[in-house]
């Protein structure tokens, strides 16, 4: 089969690989119909996530048709399914608590030592990501093996298009959980850093959850325009002092809740970020946390901080004093996709949530390297790239 593979910083290629096979009874094989490039994939593209190996197949946002099942899979050949990016057994202590992204059994034992040493506990499995998360082959390919297929994939009805449901695999539930973790109350003001795919879905989710005022912060004009379509007010951080603007927009109190949808590759020319950029260039595992620092300083006393943005290593200049003295609450984590996916599918079917506004480009799998380069370099115009293995190259 053909698959997009990682070969180093800013180097992805479409190679030929053996077709995946059933290994365990709960496995299924999916023929990919649509797969997307995620902002998290750009962290791999930039080489800032540890634990990658040359030749790894990328992609953790995908859907397709069931073509083969193991004897204990509950899926049937021919079904259309969306697959959560987190791999979960459904039976361990954490899965039973609906903390699916903390699954204890999906990261193979031989892969757990590195993440246990780095984070204190082994991480769960994730498709198409670092070997810290199991080194599973991803879905930017013609076919993929899906472990624990009786727990993760959700069958989608034929009247919904791939574009309507594909983002149930990651960014829609991630944006929703970000708003859920912000514990939004009716009448709240919520500030969202980052108008990327997760940030825009966090904006949409915060509005649906009853926030009276949602403020989106970014520097890409088109992405800020997309946030405005959901009723958000906007701040361009290249033109406006963010914290002063937020204080003015909240009567001098600060937002009730803030969401950092930027993560480990924050932009800007502030002194802390310039230092972080240098450290990230010379020290793998260093994070750039300017957006998170700004969010913690901006949130009101007693406020809530939600962090869906990805961080993978160590961060200094952490405003611990502000956390303690202001009595704020922080929630973060990889998304418990299986907890949210059925409800979000219902909301899509009923027309409450639209996901298609985000897609700027459809490309063939063979054109994926072009998609990565432009999604990375032209973020104002390339808001989301969907790859279709059945499309002809250059179509």
TrEMBL record:
<keyword id="KW-0479">Metal-binding</keyword>
<dbReference type="InterPro" id="IPR036291">
    <property type="entry name" value="NAD(P)-bd_dom_sf"/>
</dbReference>
<feature type="domain" description="Alcohol dehydrogenase-like N-terminal">
    <location>
        <begin position="25"/>
        <end position="153"/>
    </location>
</feature>
<dbReference type="InterPro" id="IPR011032">
    <property type="entry name" value="GroES-like_sf"/>
</dbReference>
<dbReference type="Pfam" id="PF08240">
    <property type="entry name" value="ADH_N"/>
</dbReference>
<comment type="similarity">
    <text>Belongs to the zinc-containing alcohol dehydrogenase family.</text>
</comment>
<dbReference type="InterPro" id="IPR013149">
    <property type="entry name" value="ADH-like_C"/>
</dbReference>
<feature type="domain" description="Alcohol dehydrogenase-like C-terminal">
    <location>
        <begin position="197"/>
        <end position="265"/>
    </location>
</feature>
<dbReference type="InterPro" id="IPR013154">
    <property type="entry name" value="ADH-like_N"/>
</dbReference>
<keyword id="KW-0862">Zinc</keyword>
<dbReference type="InterPro" id="IPR002328">
    <property type="entry name" value="ADH_Zn_CS"/>
</dbReference>
<dbReference type="Pfam" id="PF00107">
    <property type="entry name" value="ADH_zinc_N"/>
</dbReference>
<keyword id="KW-0560">Oxidoreductase</keyword>
<protein>
    <submittedName>
        <fullName>Glutathione-dependent formaldehyde dehydrogenase</fullName>
    </submittedName>
</protein>
């Amino acid at each position: 089969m053909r698959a997009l593979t990682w070969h180093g910083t800013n180097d992805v290629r479409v190679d030929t690989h053996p077709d995946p096979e059933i290994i365990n009874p709960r496995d299924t094989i999916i023929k990919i119909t649509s797969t997307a490039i995620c902002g998290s994939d750009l962290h791999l593209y930039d080489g800032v996530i540890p634990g990658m190996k040359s030749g790894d197949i990328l992609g953790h946002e995908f859907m397709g048709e069931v073509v083969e099942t193991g004897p204990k899979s509950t899926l049937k050949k021919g079904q259309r399914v969306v697959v959560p990016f987190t791999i979960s057994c459904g039976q361990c202590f954490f899965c039973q608590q609906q903390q699916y992204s903390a699954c204890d059994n999906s990261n193979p034992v031989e892969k757990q030592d590195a993440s246990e040493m780095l984070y204190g506990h082994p991480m769960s499995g994730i498709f198409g990501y670092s070997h810290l998360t199991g080194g599973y082959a991803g879905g930017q390919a013609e076919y993929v093996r899906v472990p624990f297929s009786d727990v993760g994939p959700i069958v989608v009805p034929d009247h919904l298009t791939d574009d309507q449901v594909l983002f149930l695999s990651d960014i829609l539930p991630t944006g929703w959980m970000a708003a859920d973790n912000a514990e939004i109350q009716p009448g709240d003001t919520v500030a969202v850093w980052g108008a990327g795919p997760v940030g825009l879905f966090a904006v949409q989710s915060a509005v649906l959850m009853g926030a009276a005022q949602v403020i989106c912060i970014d520097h890409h004009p088109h992405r800020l325009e997309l946030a405005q379509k959901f009723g958000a007010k906007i701040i361009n951080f290249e033109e406006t002092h963010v914290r002063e603007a937020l204080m003015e927009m909240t009567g001098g109190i600060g937002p009730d809740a803030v969401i950092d949808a930027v993560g480990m590759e924050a932009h800007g020319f502030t002194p802390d970020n310039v230092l972080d950029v240098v450290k990230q260039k010379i020290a793998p595992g260093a994070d750039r946390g300017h957006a998170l620092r700004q969010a913690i300083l901006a949130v009101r006393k007693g406020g809530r901080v939600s962090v869906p943005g990805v961080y993978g290593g160590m961060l200094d200049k952490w405003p611990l004093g502000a956390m303690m003295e202001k009595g704020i609450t922080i929630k973060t984590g990889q998304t418990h996709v299986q907890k949210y996916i059925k409800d979000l599918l219902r909301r899509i079917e009923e027309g409450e949530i639209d996901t298609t506004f985000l897609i700027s480009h459809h490309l063939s799998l063979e054109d994926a390297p072009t998609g990565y380069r432009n999604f990375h370099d032209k973020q104002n115009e390339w808001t989301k790239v969907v790859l279709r293995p059945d499309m002809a190259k250059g179509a």
